[in-house]
Specification:
376 residues, alpha+beta, Butyryl-Coa Dehydrogenase, subunit A, domain 1, Butyryl-CoA Dehydrogenase, subunit A, domain 2, 3 domains, three-stranded antiparallel beta sheet, 12 strands
Length: 376
């Protein structure tokens, strides 16, 4: 498959590279700097990006067309999957908790699209029941037609962006296998966000609880295909971010190995270090190919769901290993909170569990390959 970038894709990639280099990487030092000499006992508090800085970054990203990638300004065409992969890959090189807003294309027909584009509200995916298998088969929340819309069964769903204003919630129609994709608002009657806690020092989680919850017909945005497409797009987003994390860890590890001397030799002169970096480089290239291939298939309207799942699985594992290698090569600095590697390590460990756990994806891919082999 030909991965030659178009002029538009080259421009988008160049814009993302410059934004990350100028706006994100330059702010990492202040974000990571530890204010206290000693952290308090127990879990350290979650690091938060300053609200004014977040607003500044949002404004710049909006001006450059890097904010809502699937919801461009009126009259413009949404950028393709390959271009999105290139953008998310660049954002993955920074530990700063800032990336393009979650805004799937199907939201364009809602009344909330303009507010999402303007950064006045935020959206998150309530896809917790999908995380184990990476497919819509695990959805247990039910819905049924009601007098003025739909009634959704009482449910408790773990969410990883409890501060969001809106959530996309998949549910299965009662008595059938049909999947509906609903847009719900935090302020809706019968919906509450509870048990908010810091998951790591860079992320939070909570529980979205539905009790006697009803939603109007206008909030039903799609069905099985739309839910599956968003799932595959999220798998590609994670794969692309993991590529950026792998690139950052590899580049910093190589630079440190070239300059750090121990016992009269640089680390780069030691064969064990060379092997670690060489293996990581090969693994990174392989994951790059899988992710680009899945995105290219999506842009050509070819089936890409299995390819996206495979890319996510391989890239998340690679990024976790890349963070581990960077920590090892940097030694004590590697686990210091003023360096990004311990943050990458915790983030990639969680990414391995989202939108398909590795064991489940391995099982599903094995079954798919067996079926293809039998058909041949």
């Amino acid at each position: 498959m030909d991965f030659k970038l178009s002029e538009e894709e080259k421009l988008i990639q160049s814009t993302a590279v410059q934004f990350v280099q100028k706006e994100l990487l330059t702010r990492e030092g202040d974000y990571l700097r530890q204010r206290e000499h000693f952290l308090p006992p127990g879990d350290p508090p979650r690091r938060r990006l300053d609200a004014d800085i977040h607003q500044t970054l949002t404004s710049v990203a909006q001006r450059l067309g890097l904010w809502t990638l699937e919801l461009p300004e009126s009259g413009a065409e949404p950028i393709g999957y390959l271009a999105r992969v290139l953008v998310y890959r660049e954002f993955g090189r920074s530990i700063l908790p800032f990336e393009p807003a979650c805004a799937p294309a199907l939201l364009a027909k809602t009344d909330f699209a303009k507010d999402l584009q303007a950064g006045k509200c935020s959206l998150a995916l309530a896809f917790d029941q999908i995380h184990k298998t990476g497919t819509v088969d695990g959805i247990s929340t039910r819905y049924r037609p009601g007098a003025s819309g739909f009634s959704i069964s009482n449910s408790e769903i773990t969410i990883y962006s409890p501060s969001a204003d809106f959530f996309l919630l998949p549910a299965r129609e009662q008595g059938t296998h049909r999947i509906g994709l609903f847009l719900v608002q935090k302020s809706d009657h019968g919906l509450s966000i509870e048990d908010e806690v810091d998951l790591t020092s860079d992320a939070a989680m909570g529980r979205l609880k539905l009790r006697d919850f009803e939603v109007p017909e206008s909030r039903l945005l799609g069905y099985e295909y739309e839910a599956g497409e968003i799932l595959a797009a999220e798998q590609l987003r994670i794969a692309a971010r993991c590529l950026g994390i792998g690139m950052r860890c590899l580049a910093d590890a190589i630079e440190h190995a070239r300059t750090r001397e121990t016992f009269g030799r640089t680390l780069a002169q030691r064969q064990a270090i060379q092997w670690m970096l060489a293996d990581l480089s090969v693994n990174l290239r392989g994951c790059m190919w899988l992710t680009m291939e899945a995105a290219a298939r999506a842009d050509q309207s070819l089936p890409f769901f299995d390819a996206a799942a495979l890319a996510k699985k391989r890239a998340a594992t690679m990024a976790f290993e890349a963070a581990d290698i960077a920590i090892q090569i940097h030694g004590g600095y590697g686990v210091c909170k003023e360096f990004p590697f311990e943050g990458f390590y915790r983030e990639t460990r969680m990414l391995r569990l989202l939108y398909g756990r590795e064991a489940e994806l391995n099982r599903a891919m094995g079954q798919t390959f067996l079926k293809v082999g039998l058909k041949r």
